[in-house]
Amino acid sequence: MDRKEELAVGRRLLGHIDCRTTDLAADMFRNQTIAYACRDRAALEREKLFRERPLLMGLSSRLAKPGDYLTEDVVGMPVLLVRDGTGSVQAFANVCRHRGAPVAQGCGNARAFTCPYHGWTYDLAGRLLGATDKPGFAGLDIAAHGLVPLPTVEKHGMIYVRPGVPRPGESRTIDIDAELGVFAPPLAALQLDDFVLHSTDRIAPRINWKFAVDTFLESYHIAHLHRKTIAPYFVGNCCVFDSGGLHGRASFVKNSIDKTRAEPEDERRYLPHIVQIYQLFPNSLLVWQMDHIEIWRTFPKQGDPGVCEVELTLYKPVETTKPDSYWEKNRDIAIRTVLDEDFPLGERMQIGFESGATEEVVYGRNEPALVHFHRSIRQALGVAA
Ligand code: FES
Ligand SMILES: [Fe+2]
């Protein structure tokens, strides 16, 4: 956020605090509970949201050096991401062209990938270097049996992948600035290249993946559910919301912003008192905490709309004098709040959604980020309800 935006957002937040108001959506929004619990809906989401759209895989520092790689199953697509010898990020289906075994496991640094099954080896650009039994595969077109590439792009310190094999005639590139729209410049301004991975946590709560996103999109619940943890630090039910295409950005505010009132208005430093959450459609949340960044990504579990996988990665500045214990404390607060308070209640809500007891949930005008998120989902899926 540049200085002009900082002043504007800070002013809007102080105005809301003074008037006990918050940014409002144009209308309340009703969503069918089947959106959280229906298998057909989950199958449509998998196709439209998790195959056809670019997904944030993390910050560039996850693959710092040539040869650094990571693997991940993205809703049933095994993905291998690697920084090749020229320094470019490449993405492939992690599926051997012999008989389909994953050629890489976990993460690390490699000069080549040797399939554990029969030893076929691929270079960092995905080219098959050779089969291990030459007579058995005499005549095999080696050049035509490289790993299947997936569209990927690295920009503004982020890595994106579209985890669907492009159909004939379909674009093999991702125009990430077009995808991010109005949020491309502020995301570039965050200088995400200057952050390195501190920790990765993964959990599999029994909730729909969208509920895991919902958790972050309103502060209406803070005074109630988080009464004993973070409520004393935050102004509940107060946010400034900006939409940008299918994405959104919610700015939440800490009580400590009151201290800025002693300063002349144009000298105030609002940033230390604001937590900004970029909701990067469809499934990622980039939480800007001023001195560190959390990225939450949530993925539906294949075949079960009532379970998801959630990953929290915490990134710290490349250059920092703060000890690891400081970042651990931040990680602990983030994890504890969500795991001990949000998700356990969410699991009860998921049971409620699946029970058929109610047909709808309703998001209030005071929950504009939620309204925008679910409107965006409908738009991307091409469904009316
Ligand atoms: S499946 Fe990979 S070498 Fe056989
Ligand atoms: Fe919460």
List strands and helices in order, with pairings.
Blueprint: H1 3-19, E1 29-32, H2 34-37, H3 39-50, E2 55-59, E3 68-74, E4 77-83, E5 89-93, E6 107-109, E7 112-114, E8 121-123, E9 128-130, E10 149-150, E11 152-155, E12 158-161, H4 176-180, H5 184-189, E13 195-203, H6 209-214, H7 222-225, E14 234-244, E15 247-254, E16 274-280, E17 284-288, E18 293-301, E19 304-317, H8 324-355, E20 360-363, H9 368-381
Antiparallel strand pairs: 1-20, 2-12, 3-4, 3-6, 4-5, 5-10, 7-8, 8-9, 11-12, 13-19, 14-15, 15-16, 16-17, 17-18, 18-19
This protein binds FE2/S2 (inorganic) cluster and fe (ii) ion.
Fe (ii) ion (FE2) binds at residues 215, 221, 225-226, 342.
Explain this structure.
The chain has helices spanning 3-19, 34-37, 39-50, 176-180, 184-189, 209-214, 222-225, 324-355, 368-381; strands spanning 29-32, 55-59, 68-74, 77-83, 89-93, 107-109, 112-114, 121-123, 128-130, 149-150, 152-155, 158-161, 195-203, 234-244, 247-254, 274-280, 284-288, 293-301, 304-317, 360-363. It folds into 2 domains: 3-52 and 183-381, Naphthalene 1,2-dioxygenase Alpha Subunit, Chain A, domain 1, CATH 3.90.380; 55-173, Rieske [2Fe-2S] iron-sulphur domain (Rieske Iron-sulfur Protein). The strands form 5 sheets. The chain has a 7-stranded antiparallel sheet with strand order 13-19-18-17-16-15-14, sandwiched between helices. Strands 6-3-4-5-10 form a 5-stranded antiparallel sheet, with no helix packed on it. It is built from 9 helices and 20 strands. 26% of the residues lie in helices and 30% in strands. By secondary structure, it is an alpha+beta fold. The chain is globular. Bound molecules: FE2/S2 (inorganic) cluster and fe (ii) ion (FE2). Fe (ii) ion (FE2) is lined by residues 215, 221, 225-226, 342. Residues 56-161 form the Rieske domain.
